[in-house]
Design brief:
By secondary structure, this protein is mostly beta strands. The protein has four domains: about 1-130, Sandwich (Immunoglobulin-like); about 135-235, Immunoglobulins (Immunoglobulin-like, Sandwich); about 240-335, Immunoglobulins (Immunoglobulin-like, Sandwich), CATH 2.60.40; about 340-373. The protein is about 15% helix and about 50% strand. The chain contains two helices and 27 strands. The strands form six sheets. Strands 11, 13, 14, 15, 17 and 18 form a six-stranded mixed beta sheet that branches. Strands 20, 22, 23, 24, 26 and 27 form a six-stranded mixed beta sheet that branches. A five-stranded mixed beta sheet has the order 2-9-8-4-6, with no helix packed on it. Strand 26 (about 310-320) and strand 27 form a beta hairpin. The longest helix is centred in the C-terminal third of the chain and has 34 residues, at about 340-370.
Length: about 375
């Protein structure tokens, strides 16, 4: 008993060590800075590192452009602040986003249980402009219910070395790829390293429920950028996308229904009423709340002892917000497995296998005795 108690205590102590290592407090604030490239730019950036009290860590730099950054200290004890000084050159050839990591990595104490150490990193993002005119575009569209407005947003970032004179339009197409409407914006000027967010609402009063495609076309100079987004116009409808189709005889079975929402709001208190055709069997499922544009399961239970046919039908009726969706479905019983036959076959195979082994041993023994003679 003493030995067993010692073992349990050791395991408990080891678990505490592991947990203390895994859940060590590590972090950095702020997580990142962003700076647009300027020739010979000089700036300082402060990072606050958070470590367990007394933990020692080494401070380091990594990533791109590290030759242009210096740090004010090489190590930390516990939490502390690190100041990084960035001195950029006259020019950088490679355009785009360059990331400089300022990190602090915990030094193992020598008494750590499993050697897990904390490592926190902040980042300085240096944005180097592209030659000439260059833009990056993000386009988003919201879902709505038919008759409600759809929100569009076009985010344009000037990543080039020249200002942009930008024209924007949004084309709406339906499922047949026909353009139903075009929204035009007034031209705007975006300075170097600047950005603009354009927004517009689409009136869907005359639109039917369904899926639509929107294309934002951004033009500047001789360049043109297209970005697409799909939006859905919902209707208050819940479909039956799947259901249980096979059951076992003479027992209580689970009946699952997969319901799919085509509405852009939450549908509360959705439940199903299921009745077996030709029998006085009817049951309900508990109600659920169905999130917009999602699928979820409704589950009920029923007894199959009264059902005599191998195949039968049921009517599923979904109830929600004063509306219903109904569907008659074909169901059947699973084929019953003859476990006695499986047992007999298994036993026969085992007997044959044993006989083969015995014959092999007899032949091997005769062969061995023949060799001796």
């Amino acid at each position: 008993m003493i030995k067993k108690g010692f073992e349990i205590g050791f395991i408990f102590l080891f678990a505490l060590i592991v947990i203390s290592e895994v859940y060590a407090i590590v972090g950095v604030s702020p997580a990142s800075y962003t700076v647009n490239f300027e020739p010979n730019l000089e700036r300082t950036f402060s990072f606050g590192f958070i470590f367990d009290e007394g933990a020692e860590s080494e401070v380091y730099t990594a990533g791109a452009l590290t030759e242009y950054v210096t740090i004010n200290k090489e190590s930390l004890k516990g939490s502390g602040e690190v100041v990084a000084t960035l001195k950029l050159p006259e020019s950088i050839e490679q355009p785009g986003e360059h990331r400089i990591f300022i990190g602090a990595k915990q030094i193992p104490s020598g008494t750590a249980g499993i050697g897990i150490v904390g490592n926190a990193r902040g980042v300085i993002k240096v944005i180097v402009p592209y030659p000439g005119k260059y833009a990056e575009v993000i386009f988003e569209a919201s879902n709505a219910n038919a008759g409600e407005p759809v929100d569009f947003s076009v985010m344009i970032d000037n990543k080039g070395k020249e200002e942009l004179d930008v024209g924007v339009s949004i084309e709406i197409t339906d499922s047949s790829k026909e353009i139903t409407e075009t929204l035009d914006f007034e031209n705007i000027i975006i300075p170097i390293s600047g950005s603009e967010k354009l927004t517009r609402q689409l009136d869907t009063t005359n639109y039917k429920p369904g899926d639509y495609n929107a294309t934002a076309i951004v033009r500047y100079g001789k360049e043109s950028i297209e970005r697409e987004a799909v939006f859905r116009l919902g209707e208050l409808y819940v479909g039956i996308s799947n259901y249980s189709a096979e059951f076992e005889k003479n027992k209580i079975n689970k009946f699952e229904i997969e319901a799919e929402s085509f509405w852009n709001d939450v549908i509360n208190n959705l439940f199903a009423n299921i009745s077996i055709k030709g029998y006085n069997i009817e049951f309900l499922t508990p109600s659920i709340d169905l999130a917009p544009w999602t699928k979820s399961k409704l589950t009920g239970f029923f007894d199959t002892s009264e059902i005599k046919e191998e195949e039968f039908q049921a009517e599923i009726v979904l109830n929600y917000h004063g509306k219903t969706t109904s569907k008659i479905v074909n169901l059947k019983f699973r084929e019953e497995k003859d476990y006695k036959l499986y047992t007999l076959v298994g036993a026969s195979v085992a007997v044959v296998f044993v006989i083969i082994i015995i014959i092999f041993l007899i032949l091997w023994k005769k062969h061995k005795n023949g060799k001796k003679k």
